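Notes from the 1:1 (GR / supervisor)

We went over the backlog. Supervisor wanted to see one worked example end to end before approving the batch request, so GR pasted a single chain during the call. The sequence is below; no edits were made to it. Supervisor asked that the structure be written out right there so they could see what the output format looks like.
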Amino acid sequence: MYKRLIGGLLAIAVAACSPGADTEDGAKADAGEVNLYSSRHYDTDLALYEDFTEQTGIAVNLIEADADALIERIRSEGEFSPADLLITVDAGRLWRAEEAGILSPVQSNVLAERLPIYLRHPDGLWFGLSTRARVIIYNKDAGEPEGLESYADLADPAFRGDICIRSSSNIYNISLLSSIIANRGEEAAQAWAEGVVANFARRPQGNDTAQIEAVAAGQCRIAVVNTYYLARYAGGDEDERAMFDKIGVIFPNQDGSGAHVNISGAGVVKTAPNRANAIQFLEYLTSESAQRYFADGNNEYPAVGSLEANSAVEQLGSFKPDTLNAAEIGRNQAKAVEIFDRAGWN
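Structure output shown during the call:
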């Protein structure tokens, strides 16, 4: 059953300036509903959906599940799927949706003007909504690791026994390696994966939070994590802030391609029964009010470049992002998995 998120509002049109006037459908969608399948599970997203309803009168019907489960559900529902919009995290999962053939191209002047080209699928199948940088952290008590400035440096034998990281099945690591394949080639990516495996402090395990806590506790000197996890500690309770104070942050590849970024993104489903509303909602998600929910509520970087991140994220430092198109990261996923397997990255 759908979870209706209208925040006690009557399901009638609310006077507001619609972000949908420039869609390919040529006119603002009528008030009604939009059926959202989302693998994001953050409370602030619920407030964001309510804000959309308040602005437009369009009710958001939400189904939450794992991204792969949602993609398979839409595929199996076929032409009878009620899904209008799929939202998920990471370019790899957006690519899986693209490969499943469940997304439909959208031409929108609003989205083209607001989002940088690397956060838009070349054919308009999906659009980035927010980003997180994948950074290197280190234990301050052990000292800043000399010569550690890039992802490539993680394979340096100087850091033997120093690195904690997630498993090779983690989509964040798959996408990171996919970007290395795109930027440096398969041979270099293979050598990198093998070098990092040789530098493991322990068998890959846990989520990004586990890596942060291991570095803070001195169980390993170095780890790779997403910025929004770090910002949670920076803006958390006394114990969390104490752990954050024990950690240094390195934004990799600042003299080269830039730091790898994960994206949250969305695409309109091919069989969407409420297509005009789905496009209007997608455009709303790039509006300033929606982008502030992503930034302030969940410590993500806004996809719209003119907007700033919140203070907890900003205190991590400024950085140059890798502007490799996320679609290319998706295309290298299978190669990345093969390389991880050959390298013995469990």
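Supervisor's comment: Residues 3-131+262-308 form a domain with the D-Maltodextrin-Binding Protein; domain 2 fold (CATH 3.40.190.10).
Batch request approved.
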